[in-house]
Design brief:
Helix content: 25-40%
Number of strands: 24
Strand content: 15-25%
Number of helices: 14
CATH architecture of the largest domain: 3-Layer(bba) Sandwich
Distance between the termini: 44 Å
CATH superfamily of the largest domain: FAD/NAD(P)-binding domain
Length: 570
């Protein structure tokens, strides 16, 4: 059983004193849960468990130390989202020169796509109890206290870097999950909007962080520069730099004191999702940045790192993935404040899910990913895939079907495709462009719509008829949907859109210690190598609701520790 803190009423000194014993007691559990493959006796490829869709993680060894360097800094941060920004700011404030590398042409990562909810703690020991218990044996007491301590420093970081909170923020509430110490992981906030809305989103939060980065004279940002390999001293095992690609040319970037991996997870890598999370033919797409493709997983395993928390990921809301975009849209017919004005059906035309129950942040597989015990082909084995959203012209004309706004109080910036930082797409207010593009399919009657979507016409007609009857009666006797969300589908033309599963983020990456140093397969620190944010997050089994505050906390630890290292010398 994991150590407890609050129940024992330990002082901070007593808590720290238990760290060594706690680490020993938890060692066997932590080792056993480092990787959890989905298929028993699956092959091992390069030290990483693979499922049916085998992934190749290169293990030929790290890149040799080059004879010359193209760029040099004390600290190199790989990834320019929220955690990368906090790491860079902290390292610079501790006297280090910093280079940030990011593969995207615009910064922000998943931070810029998020709803903007920030969390931090009021009490270090209480917050440590929460994260230790929620870690289910994978964290040591030393790690938990380090995390809890930095979570109490997030508010000060925000103040010191001119991050303005929305009016009335922060508020205090108990963190989710019911774990001991949840009442101390309690501060919640949205930042002030830059666009005149009552509250800001993750895009606004990242703009504050980017402004703080720009004020630091010792930070150089290199966008469109994907990191590809770590460079490691073969004698000391110290990570001494990063090999990256800049405009098609290989460059070597020297890191005198440390490399911080803050490049997110692998939502955009179908093979890794299949290997670590969901081994089935149901496609899952990121709604956030498409640049999280597991590059960091490959990079750290090249230098002998152990992986952990690979099972940690978050399902997203109802999605739609057009072929012309790398990420999925979230769907909300009728616009903000009018959710659930639709039904979801499979190719047989049958409802299978109570639509008032969201798939966002759930911990069990949604119905489209559940196989049947009999049948042939995808339609038989996975009877609820493909699946469709069905609504009528009343909903079509009420506002964008795409979730341009998560709520009426925030700006239209949730998701990569909508983020003002990237500006890839503006969904039309009346959905006319999306109808013309063929994204939203229409039919003068239900049989016509069913034929266009390849849904069983008789099944869809029967389901909509039954649905309308239940709406009139005020009760969903089929699946138990919340009555107040039920609206009939009666006004042609009828509309449908083929849906997809979406993923918010993943939490796995290089295993860390209390200093955020990434560990090797024997749980020894790999010198000068750190993790931050979603890459190897301490959220292994329970996601409290946001990586934004914890990403700042990680940056405080990784940035300060890396800046304090003695410079590597060949």
């Amino acid at each position: 059983m994991a150590d407890t803190i609050t129940d024992k009423k330990l002082s901070r000194r007593q808590f720290v004193g238990t760290a060594a014993a706690g680490a020993a007691a938890l060692g066997a559990v932590a080792g056993a849960t480092t990787l959890i493959p989905r298929v028993a006796a699956s092959p091992t490829v390069g030290g990483v468990k693979a499922a049916k869709d085998t992934i190749t993680v290169p293990r030929a060894g790290p890149v040799p130390i080059p004879s010359s360097w193209d760029y040099t800094a004390d600290v190199v941060v790989v990834g320019y989202g929220g955690a990368g920004a906090a790491s860079a700011i902290t390292a610079a404030e501790n006297g280090a020169s910093v280079i940030i590398l990011d593969k995207a042409s615009a910064p922000g990562g998943n931070t810029s796509c998020a709803s903007g909810h920030l969390q931090w703690a009021s009490n270090a020991i209480g917050a440590a109890e929460y994260v230790l218990t929620a870690g289910l044996g994978t964290l040591t007491t030393a790690q938990a206290l380090a995390i809890g301590t930095q979570l109490t420093n997030v508010g000060t970081f925000l103040t010191n870097h001119n991050v303005t909170l929305a009016p009335g923020n922060p508020t205090s509430s108990t963190a989710s999950g019911g774990f001991p110490g949840a009442q101390y992981y309690n501060w919640n906030a949205s930042v002030a909007s830059h666009d005149g809305y009552p509250a800001g989103t993750g895009k606004d939060f990242f703009q504050y962080l980017a402004a703080a980065v720009n004020k630091q004279s010792g930070i150089q940002v290199m966008l469109s520069t994907p990191a590809q390999h770590l460079i490691q001293d073969p004698a000391s095992r110290t990570v001494v730099g990063v090999q990256a690609n800049s405009s098609g040319q290989i460059i070597n970037v020297k890191a005198n004191k440390g490399v911080i991996m803050a490049l997110g997870g692998y939502e955009g890598n179908r093979d890794m999702i299949s290997a670590f999370n969901d081994d089935n033919p149901v496609a899952i797409y990121p709604a956030g940045t498409p640049y999280n493709t597991g590059d960091g997983i490959e990079m750290v395993t090249e230098v002998g790192a152990k992986l952990w928390h690979m099972q940690g990921f978050e399902y997203g809301y109802y999605g739609f993935k057009p072929s012309v975009f790398p990420s999925a849209f979230w769907l909300q017919p009728g616009g903000a404040g009018t959710m659930y004005a639709y039904i979801i059906v499979n190719s047989a035309g049958n409802r299978f899910h109570a639509e008032s129950t969201s798939w966002g942040h759930i911990k069990t597989k949604p119905e489209p990913q559940l196989p049947n015990s009999a049948g042939t082909g995808i339609a038989g084995i996975w009877p609820n895939y493909p699946f469709y959203m069905i609504f009528d012209n009343t909903i079509l004309t009420q506002g964008p079907v795409g979730m341009t706004q998560r709520s009426t109080t925030t700006g239209p910036t949730v998701g990569w495709n909508f983020s003002f930082l990237h500006g890839d797409y503006t969904w039309s207010k009346d959905n006319s462009v999306e109808v013309a593009n063929g994204w939203i399919v229409q039919g003068k009657d239900l049989p016509t719509l069913a034929a266009a979507l390849n849904i069983n016409a008789a099944g869809l007609q029967a389901q909509v008829t039954n649905w309308n009857s239940m709406c009139a009666a005020g009760a969903d006797t089929q699946l138990g949907r919340t009555a107040s969300t039920m609206k009939p589908i009666i006004n042609p033309p009828y509309c449908g859109i083929q849906m997809c599963m979406t993923m918010i983020n993943t939490q796995g990456g290089g295993k860390r210690n209390e200093r955020n140093q990434i560990l090797d397969t024997m749980d020894n620190p790999i010198p000068h190598l750190y993790g931050a944010g979603e890459f190897g997050s301490y959220y292994g089994f329970w996601y409290s609701g946001s990586n934004l505050g914890s990403g700042v906390a990680d940056g405080l630890t990784s940035g300060a520790d890396a800046a304090a290292q003695a410079p590597w010398s060949s």
